[in-house]
Amino acid sequence: MMRLLALQARRDRLTLAIWVVGLAVLLLVTVQAAHAEYGSAADRRTVLLVALATPVLLAFRGIVDGGSFGSAVFFQTYTWMAVAVALMNTFLAVRHGRGDETAGRRELVDATPHGRLAAPVASVLLAVIADAAFLLLATVLLVAGGMPLAGSILLSGGLALTGIGFFGVGLLASEAMPSSRAANGVAVVVALLAYVLRAAGDALGTADGRTLTLDPAPVSALSPIGWGERLLPYTRPTGWPIAALVVFAIVTVGAALSVHAHRESGASLLRDRVGRPAGGIGSPLGLAWRLQRPSVFAWALGAGVLSAVTPNLVTAASRFDLRDVTIRRVVASLGHSRAGLETQFTAGILVLIGMLAAAAGVQAVLRAREEQVSGRAEVVLSGAVSRAGFLGSWVAAAVGTVAAVLLASAAAISVGSLVQGQARQIGVRVLQMLVQAPSALALTAVAALLVALLPRAAVVGSWVLFAAAGLVGLFGGVLDLPAGLIRYSPVGSVPALPTSDWGPTWAVGAAAVVLLALAGVAIRRSQFA
Question: Which of 162, 305, 430, 474 has the largest count of CB atoms under 10 Å?
Fold first, then answer.
């Protein structure tokens, strides 16, 4: 067991070090940025009142619990850091789960006297060690940034436990899906769904401008990230979220190990559909689209459901602040109108749906790498098909996937708007959905370039860069990143309509075209490995 743990740690020593140290340093950067943003008690009160009056800020940041500096730091930090730690753990789980099975490494381990559970248990221990290292380093840096020790331990502990719980989610995805590409995609969607549920709960919550507090709506309780933000480590420390996160981790990891113990090696709970013995597929593009169709349907259905309920969430979120006199005064002083609040919140939610479309595109391109590893690409290339044609077929399938997800989401939000009696808003909401395309295609193009240039690092690299793009675009302001970097990042370039500032959108779209062209050139010189 310990030798397996040492082997896995050696393989991941650089990747995990970058994740753990990088995320802990980002926590310190956030604290330092909070010192600059909340220079005095009066500044904190003003900024937090504005946040309570703006549902989109609550959705993308979190709970406000008083006017203390600790409350401001937790408000700025916890929710986005929870998503980042969750992704670190899901990628680790899939890499040592379905990834090892696909590569044949797990079969070699299973053939030894260690037993079938040895490898997954070793990966669980590795995740616990990595999250414990993050807990320790994050606590040290938070205290170095001037935060109280007890609250810092509680905050870091909540993040670490969230990470272990999502490691279990990654293991379950590895058990269920037939490829690491699909397992990573499922894990990313689950992490984003947890964030969306928490965001909806905070945006729909009840704000009190006198005490500067927010009581989230019940939907937040459906998300592990929503549980964690109830810790309130620097204001009113609460223990029950820790217990809930421990149960979450035990249930997900335990379920994954139980499934693995009874699953046939190399198999998956959801198997690839077997096609007809004779078919009419006559081109690489036709094959790619045939293989991609089930994934397109799944992504479009998930994004469509979220899009259909968006008008209802927007309506509720734009009205909650009117219940509190203090918040109502702040809204009036800011010049907010009901329509303005609805526009802000709609744009915020649709950015998350655009990220789902981007994830779908990335997953589709990474199928090309799966075809290489399995040896099926060699069969295709043995005919009159070039390497550029092979990769181009999967890029075309990915572009079609992005388009299908966005169009299905646009149709769903139109239906939802009609049901809510908001027919006048359909046009701008459909355009707001479709304007996500350049961002999604840019992230898809990055994945294509990695498949061409660095095939062995393509899967992990694509999802890490996807997470980084979301971090910069959604939380760059919290991290005090340069405004230009945020505006011209894939996610940050998406405008809130109506707008006259289309420069970043055009720039990101042009970058997507250039990256795809570079991928086409690079694949001609690459060696499949």
Answer: 162
